Amino acid sequence: MAAWSIHFLARVPRCRFDGGAILQGVVASGVAVDGGIVATNRTREKADALASLPGVTSIALEQNPTGNADAAAAARIVLVGVKPAMVPDLLREIAPSLREDAIVVSLAAGVTLATFEEALGTQVHSIRSMPNTPATVGRAVTGIAAGPAATLEDVAVVRALFETVGAVIEVPESQIDALSTVSGSGPAYVFLFIEELTKAAVGMGFSDADARLMAEQTFIGATALLAASGEEPAELRRRVTSPKGTTERAIAVLQEARLDDVFARATAAALARAKELAAGA
Fold first, then answer.
1. Which residues form a coiled coil (predicted)?
2. Are 75 and 94 in contact (CB under 8 A)?
């Protein structure tokens, strides 16, 4: 792949949508980034954790207080991956240093494009994104929503960046929070199912190692089959569920638990929290 004529700034302390996952995924993808990648962190310890990544210049703000502004001044793409409450201050810090053609991309849950416009001005090209942690293995789902000043070219550049770590869905901003309740939080749902299935296997007498292997590989194998077959999940489920068989009995128990209602309430709770974050709560 040819080198991109972009720079990439990622300030990556731990947050809900870990900027470090995106950074590691982009590096692992092997895509060439013209001018390299600059990542800033508050502490030397966190900066050192990224310093060994090829093509990454990792800056500790405790040693270089102007690191954010310095990196932003050279960056075509600025990824803002701090905790939501920290976003306005960071934006005001880098605003005077941004290039005229800079694209500022939010990774922060619940922070609206209006917040970016308020801190940076309406002329700045901003895009709101909602990735998930499988970016580290190139299997992310990232939603992106363009701000009013963002051009089609801006969206194409950001889309191409996130496509190095997985799939991309373009949505209006009004749908970004809803997307986050499915793909953003979704890996945690999957891990919870694996966790509980593993516990069930242990309860039936399997060793911890065998129980974990069965649960993990069942999920991995099922999703691989889904991807390879092109069939609907409901159809594959029906093929596994023989009439009057063991799977049918188990599925009946799960359906009695009203999983449809559980997932509806879970995603609604996540969406309510996203709105609270947007309101500063």
1. none
2. no
Which residues, 6 or more positions from 56, have their beta carbon under 8 angstroms from its beta carbon?
23, 27, 36, 37, 38, 39, 50
Q: What is the pLDDT of residues 142-152, one digit of tens each?
A: 999 999 999 99
Name every residue whose Cβ is closer than 8 Å to that of residue 13 and which is 6 or more positions away in sequence: 41, 42, 46, 81, 82, 83
β-strand partners of 59: 40
In the 8-state DSSP scheme, what is residue 181?
A: I
Domain annotation for the chain: domains and CATH numbers: 8-176 (3.40.50.720), 186-276 (1.10.3730.10)
Question: Using an 8 Å Cβ cutoff, are 193 and 201 in contact?
Answer: no
Question: What is the distance between the alpha carbons of residues 189 and 187, in angstroms, rounded to a whole number?
Answer: 5
